[in-house]
Amino acid sequence: MDNNDIMTWSIAIAAVAFVVLCGFLISLLRTAQSSLVTAQSAMQEVKETVEGLQGEVKKLAESVNDVAEDIRGKLQSTDPLFDAVQDVGMLLSEVTGTAREATKGLAHSIRKQAASIEEGDVVTPSWLRWAKLGSRIALSIHKGWKQQREQSYSLGKEEI
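That's the DUF948 domain-containing protein sequence above. Prediction below.
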């Protein structure tokens, strides 16, 4: 074999190697193309999902804003209620103070009356007679209401 034959065989082997290499490259490129198509498809699905979610998120945000506005309005509508409760609290405080003063005055009068009774002065003042009469009336009314409730309750039980 001479140099020309070796050169020819070398070129032929290089050409065959190049053809095999090109075949593998073509196969690799087709696989890469298939992977890219799959990735592109997946990206398209992700894009569509994100667009769908974007609309839902926007609706959800609007709904949350509507609920927040509704709650704000309802809280503002309760302001008069809390003002009324505050007024009732102040009124109760004033009534309690007035009752405390009246109780002090009544206690003072009772002590004074008791002291005068101990001294031998047995005259019953008219206000004390009225207080005694009023307490008897109040107790009678209370007993009547209590009896009426008990009768209503027992009648209701019998019907069941």
